[in-house]
Amino acid sequence: MLKDKIALVTGAGRGIGRGIALELSRRGAHVIVNYNRSAEGAQQVVDEIRSAGGEALAIQADVSRADHVERMFSMVKERFGRLDILVNNAGLITVAPLMVMTEEEWYRILDVNAKAVWLCARAAVPLMKDRGGAMVNISSEVAHRAFPGGLIYSASKAALEMITKVLAVELAPLGIVVNGVAPGLTHTDMGRPFIENDEIRQAALNRTPVGRLGEPEDIAKVVAFLVSPDAYWLRGQILMANGGGSL
User: Fold this and answer.
1) CATH superfamily of domain region 6-185+217-241
2) DSSP calls for 94-147
């Protein structure tokens, strides 16, 4: 269903981004694996895709920087001439109470979790507008659930979700489908500190009907659906991919 589609996944060197890149490749897409610092992880993803017969390449870029984003999308245009799928997955988290959080943390989290979505979407449109395409933005269930110390992270993901909705409206006339996914607690490097906290882990398990935490592959399959033609009638939706944890 995604055969020969050109897909760019930001923050794809590890965690959920890695899972998404691998899943899209399994379904036939050619995958651009974006990373900022996870060079080794990104190359491992590329190698795994190629060893399975797929096509992939890694591109380093800090997606919170306009010059990096412009360079990355110029490379995509030069190599492929178009882009069919954009997954804005790159993200940062910090847990800091109101009176402890710094201004530097505030802007850095917003830059990566929200501003980068705007920058990448803006750069992707010229490569999508002639053929249409799909964008998926990765949010978090904590955009809908408050927790102590989560002020900036939750706010940044809430901003991402509204960006998703506005883009869905603005880009629909160009044939570009925009949706989002809000994972629950998932087994990743970013999620490890929370999973290793017995109280947090048990609370997440208690509210999840399926009785386990998420895996990157769980999120990747939801994303793969959203970028497929089957999701055409979904616009500006945020799918809660948390095993029912928000019921």
Assistant:
1) NAD(P)-binding Rossmann-like Domain (3.40.50.720)
2) ----TTT--HHHHHHHHIIIIIHHHHHHHHHHHHHTTT-EEEEEE--GGGSS--
